[in-house]
Design brief:
With 278 residues, this protein is of the alpha+beta class. The chain folds into 2 domains: 158 residues, no CATH class; 106 residues, no CATH class. Helices cover 35% and strands 19% of the residues. Strands 1, 2, 3, 4, 5, 6, 7 and 8 form an 8-stranded antiparallel β-sheet that branches. Strands 9-10 form a two-stranded antiparallel sheet. A hairpin with a 7-residue loop joins β4 and β5. This is Protein YafZ. It comes from Cupriavidus basilensis OR16.
Length: 278
Amino acid sequence: MHLGTRFARFSPSLQSAEPLTDDQIRAVAPSIFGDNKHDSRSERYSYIPTSSVLDELRKEGFQPFMVCQTRVRNEDRREFTKHMIRLRHAGQIEAREANEIIVINSHDGTSSYQLMAGMYRFVCKNGLVCGNTVADLRIPHKGDIVSEVVQGAYDVLDGFDLVREVKEGLQGVTLDAGEQQAFARAALALRYEEREDGTASAPITDTQLLTPRRTEDVASDLWSTFNRAQENMIRGGLRGRNATGRRVSTRPVQGIDQSIKLNRALWVLAEEMRKLKN
C-alpha cells in the first residue's frame, strides 16, 4: 500500500494493491462520507453522499483502489471538497492492466458527479486516463443520482472495447527516433508553457522524457513511447535545470484536475500521432 501525504500540495491520497475499506478511505478523504451538503448549496441541490454511490458500485462488483481529495484552506469545506475514487471491476483485479471507472464529485458546488475511463498498468502502478475514446459523463446534483452514476459506470465500461482498439492501434505503429523525439516535445509543451522569447520552459529534455524506467517500455512502438512519456511526466523525479540554470527535479503531477487534464491530453496526442502515421 502507498499512502501519499502530499496530494495537490499536501492534500492526502491513498492507493493500494487491495480493495480499500471504508475506514482507510475515510482517513484520507472524509468528504466522500460527508453527511450533508455545504451551506452554500440551495434547496434545489440534491445531496447524495458519494459513499452511497460507492456502496452501490461495490454491489455491482466495482472495488475502490485509489482515493484522494483536494487540499482546502478553509477548514469548514474539508468535509465537502472535491474528491476522486478509482474503481476496478472484480474480474480485473489480478490483471496486468485493468480498466477503471474514475468518479469525481464534491458537495460544495465545485464539481458535479463525473465518470470517465482510465487504465491502470500494474507494472508501473500509474493510472492512464483515456481521452475522447469513451464517455465522459457529468451528472448534476438532482434526481436519482445513484442509479444514474451506476448506469454511467456501465456505460463507461462498454466503451472499453474502443479503448482496447486504440491501444492495439498504438502498438501497431512504429516510430523512428525523430518521431519519438517529436512526440516527446509535444508532450512537454502540454505541461510547460512557452517563455516570452519563444524558447521552451521545460527543465528537462525530450530525451529524458523518453528514458524507459523498465525493459517492458524500451520498444519503439507508439504505445511504448506514450507510456514512457506519460509515466516520466506524471511521476516526476527527473533532474534538469530551470530558466536560471539552477538544478531542479521535476515534480509529480498530483492535483486531481491537473492529472486528469494532462493524462487525457497525452492520450489524445497519441491518437493523433497514430492517425498521422496511418
